[in-house]
Design goal:
heterodimer, A: mainly alpha, Rna Polymerase Sigma Factor, Chain: A, Arc Repressor Mutant, subunit A, 8 helices, B: alpha+beta, 5-stranded antiparallel sheet, two-stranded antiparallel ribbon, elongated
Chain lengths: 188, 356
């Protein structure tokens, strides 16, 4: 009985320690907090069930292992709900011409502090599901287009096009927010 | 594969690297409730541990009692006595109690020495003893006498009234009724040549080593029961090594050389099924219009349409692939029924009989 209480306590403390970080990850994939909490719930249950399988590794790997489980759970969730949400609504055969990304026009590195994390999170959440998934996998999980194509069961060119459009949309949103702020500052 | 760098990617990656969102209390409560259900499942393992421990305990106790009582029974009964036909002649002793002690019975008729006149010991398959002159002290267990050569001396007393009917052989197995033919007439034995003590010792030890042969009596039956636990490891290419646990209870009924073994056991193991399913989502259905006809209603100047529809199911054009891995626990009930016949024992017994 004492062991059971101890295990419960450990699970609780594990949840309290890592749930906020993992919920941030889930929200990036799901777009809304309700789905993100569902994914967090399922993912954490998987983590608890498979804790025995996780062998001791150097510190830092545990969080990566949990993140990987969360990402997989989120992808499953997106797949399961793709019908009603129309996740991959873009024509999978639509290919776009690769446009050179010079990166000259947006020195975003200098904008730290201008945008809050919540706002940036919202921007990602506001992306269409297909864009959002590809963007998350490519940027945050460092997947290659080939890996993304395998995971999402689409072509590499579809992955590239969705990433391109996601970037374009995000850039547009960033600029509009920036313009608003500049306008407000000028007004003052 | 080299990944292209983009400032937006870097910006978002850095900004949201450690972004945290606090989960709602309800989500936390839901999770902890489900996690506690998972924790409660763990006693299942403890139940198995207790079951296995109990089986092991019973098995050890069973072995202990088996050996304890089987030793007692082997002391109490003399196999040779059960089969008088096996023994042509034996040492002579007046009284032998069932516990293997020589005793003065009913009140010591001054039996301090046990004299063995002359004996010929014929045991089926055993060495024949030609001569024997020995003295066995009163109240001395025969086992000790057999094992201790000093108890046998060359004092010979033809007048002694004791008849050593059948020196008990420790470790021998017999299921026949206790001896009632302990004494045999001395006159039968007096004609036989005497044996040397050493040769008696040697022959008895030889009999002990070779085992006392046994011929099945006409009616002999036994029932024995036991618990068993048998771990098992299966090797297959898909799942590697897979353990299986077998345990149960079984009983054996023996009658003569025949035996029936039966019982009930459980075999528990786990198996994995993996399925790869390719499918298209079902999106719904509609009534497809195949054709329509019109009839002219002259009274109302109206066209009356007739629609011919068929039911159509609609599936998503996107093919999906699901990998399902199902872990199943298999529990088998085993009820063995084994009919047996003890060929070796029976054949060896009959061969020894033939030799005699």
């Amino acid at each position: 009985m004492g062991g059971e209480v101890r295990v419960k306590y450990e699970i609780e403390s594990l949840y309290d320690q890592y749930a906020p970080l993992l919920l941030g990850l889930c929200k990036r994939y799901c777009g809304n907090i309700e789905d993100a909490e569902d994914v967090l719930h399922d993912g954490f249950i998987k983590i608890i069930k498979n804790l025995d399988k996780f062998q001791e590794r150097p510190s830092g790997t545990f969080i990566a292992w949990m993140k990987r489980i969360m990402v997989n759970t989120a992808l499953n969730h997106i797949r399961d709900h793709s019908k009603e949400r129309n996740v991959f609504s873009l024509d999978p055969y639509q290919e776009i011409m690769e446009m050179p990304d010079t990166g000259e026009e947006a020195p975003f590195g200098e904008l730290d502090g201008v945008f809050s994390k919540a706002l940036l999170q919202e921007m990602i959440s506001a992306l269409p599901p297909g864009y959002r998934t590809v963007f998350n996998l490519y940027v945050f999980e460092s997947y290659s287009h080939k890996d993304i194509a395998t995971v999402l069961d689409c072509s590499e060119s579809t992955s590239k096009s969705q990433l391109f459009k996601a970037r374009a949309l995000l850039k547009k949103n960033l600029q509009s927010v920036l313009n608003k702020k500049l306008y407000q500052n000028e007004k003052r | 594969m080299k990944k292209d760098k983009h400032p937006i990617d870097d910006f978002f990656r850095e900004a949201l690297k450690d972004h945290e969102v606090i989960p709602s209390d309800s989500a936390r409560a839901d999770f902890l409730e489900e996690a506690s259900m998972y924790v409660r499942k763990k006693p299942f393992l403890r139940k198995w541990t207790i079951s296995l421990s109990l089986i092991l305990l019973f098995a050890i106790l069973g072995i202990f009692f088996y050996f304890t009582f089987s030793n007692k029974s082997s002391k109490a009964y003399s196999p040779a006595e059960n089969n008088p036909g096996n023994i042509e002649n034996t040492s002579t002793v007046e009284t032998i109690k069932e516990d293997g002690m020589l005793n003065a019975y009913p009140k010591p008729p001054q039996i301090n020495n046990l004299s063995v006149k002359s004996t010929k010991v014929f045991k089926t398959g055993a060495t024949m003893v030609d001569e024997n002159i020995s003295t066995v002290r009163k109240n001395e267990p025969l086992d000790e006498i057999i094992e201790n050569p000093q108890t046998v001396t060359e004092e010979m007393s033809p007048e002694s009234g004791l008849t050593l009917k059948n020196p008990e052989i420790p470790g021998s197995v017999s299921d026949s009724p206790p001896h009632d033919t302990l004494s045999r007439s001395l006159s039968d034995l007096q004609e036989l040549p005497a044996a040397k003590p050493d040769s008696i010792q040697n022959s008895i030890h030889a009999m002990i080593k070779s085992g006392v042969p046994e011929i099945w009596p006409e009616r002999e039956w036994r029932i024995s029961a036991g618990l068993y636990y048998a771990p098992e490891w299966m090797f297959n290419t898909l799942e590697g090594t897979k353990p299986a646990t077998n345990f149960g209870i079984e009983g054996t009924f023996r009658i003569g050389p025949y035996s029936i073994r039966t019982g009930a056991g459980l075999s528990i193991t786990k198996g994995t099924n993996q399925l790869a399913i390719e499918y298209q989502d079902y999106l719904g259905s509609y009534m497809k219009l195949d054709s329509m006809t019109f009839a002219w209603d002259e009274q109302h100047y109206y066209l009356i349409p007739t629609y011919f529809l068929t039911h159509q199911d609609v599936f998503d054009s996107l093919m999906k692939l699901d990998n399902a891995k199902v872990i199943k626990r298999y529990t088998y009930l085993q009820i063995p029924l084994i009919l047996g016949y003890d060929f070796l024992r029976y054949l060896s017994s009959t061969n020894k009989c033939k030799r005699v």
